[in-house]
Amino acid sequence: VKALLAAAVALSVAGMTLAAQRQVEPAPAFQAEVRLDGMPTQGALVRGRASPPVTALILDDQPVTLAADGSFVLGFDRDAPAIAILKVRSARAGLSMTDERRLRVAPRAWRLEQVDAAYRPPGFDVRRPAELERIAAARAVATDAQGWRQAFRWPATGRLSGLFGAQRIYRGQPGGYHGGADVALPTGAPVTAPADGVVVLAAAAPFTLEGRLLMLDHGAGLSSAFLHLSRIDVREGEAVRQGQRIGAVGATGRATGPHLHWGVQWRGAKLDPLLVAGAMPVR
Ligand SMILES: [Zn+2]
Question: What is the pTM of this model?
Answer without folding.
Answer: 0.85
